[in-house]
Design goal:
- The protein is of the alpha/beta class and about 280 residues long.
- It contains twelve helices and eight strands.
- Helix content is about 45%, strand content about 15%.
- Strands 1, 2, 3, 4, 5, 6, 7 and 8 form an eight-stranded mixed β-sheet that branches.
- The longest helix has 25 residues.
Length: about 280
């Protein structure tokens, strides 16, 4: 007999402004009543993906275009003055509380379980945080999830020293499966043929993070781990056990893109991919 209580999960890769692709995918999901029991986001997958739980169609693309040239949002000036390329107070306080208000009430009432991934600098391992309320404390975890190494301060919360979740678990499908999510949709921000190479910034990473050898080791092995995760995802997809939505080709957008037209282009690519997948997605779920 077929199980009727299979938990449906949504796994969201990061990728900084490649995340506009994910924002487009999620808006199409919301417009078409596609829902899940749980979702997990890494870095931009968390910061943009939270709007899926708060049911705010169009919010991610809207505020990114509106504030793309505001130095408080993302700039070298912000990095010099605050220690974060993406200004912590502006991104995680001013925008959600004043300038483009995040719907906390809807977020908290929505039964979908939402998780983010951050990297523990001391252990070099991923940490997973369930975000029930998106209050100030939980937003600190979300900020940690998106705090890119070399471009952000280490985030201290709950006794941990944290940085970007993509450093240790870029595509947390296996973690979600360990929680009992059996039917998963994975949104990737790189095309199927993509293969990660070792970072040219590793010498600088070793210098800047020399107090944290475990996270440096994790970054040394990141390309190998990431490529293994992608292989695992696509092997399951080819067997029909996972559904993947990904760009057909490289998105060609800077991680810190400021051009609103480029942001819109990548967002539209996400919408296009989601619309093309709707029939098989409904059948899969």
């Amino acid at each position: 007999m077929e199980k009727t209580n299979v938990k449906k999960g949504l796994v969201l890769e990061g990728g900084a402004m490649r995340g506009m692709f994910t924002a487009g995918v999620l808006d199409v999901f919301m417009e078409n009543g596609i829902d899940f029991d749980g979702a997990i986001g890494v870095s931009a997958g968390a910061t943009f993906g939270c709007n899926f739980k708060s049911r705010q169609i169009g919010r991610a693309i809207r505020y990114n275009k509106r504030f793309s040239h505001d130095w408080r949002y993302c700039s070298v000036r912000s990095l010099l003055f605050t220690g974060d390329l993406y200004g912590a107070d502006f991104c995680y306080n001013k925008i959600p509380n004043e300038l483009d208000v995040f719907d906390l009430e809807t977020y908290r009432k929505n039964p979908l379980e939402f998780y983010c991934v951050a990297s523990d600098c001391v252990s070099g391992k991923p940490l997973y945080k369930k975000l029930d309320s998106c209050d100030e404390h939980e937003l600190t975890w979300m900020r940690a999830s998106a705090s890119m190494p070399l471009a952000s301060r280490i985030v201290e919360v709950d006794g941990y020293k944290l940085l970007d979740g993509g450093m240790t678990d870029s595509i947390p499908l296996e973690y979600f499966e360990s929680l009992g999510y059996e039917k998963n949709v994975v949104v990737l921000t790189q095309p199927r043929e993509y293969e990660k190479k070792s970072s040219s910034l590793m010498p600088l990473m070793r210098l800047m993070l020399k107090k944290y050898p475990a996270i440096v080791d994790a970054m040394e092995n990141r390309s190998e781990d990431y490529n293994r995760q992608r292989k695992y995802v696509y092997e399951k997809a080819d067997r029909g056990e996972v559904l993947v939505i990904a760009p057909e080709k490289a998105l060609g957008i800077s991680r810190t893109e400021k051009d609103p037209e480029e942001l819109q282009r990548v967002y539209d690519e996400g919408r296009k991919a989601a619309l093309a997948s709707l029939d098989r997605l409904k059948e899969f779920l």
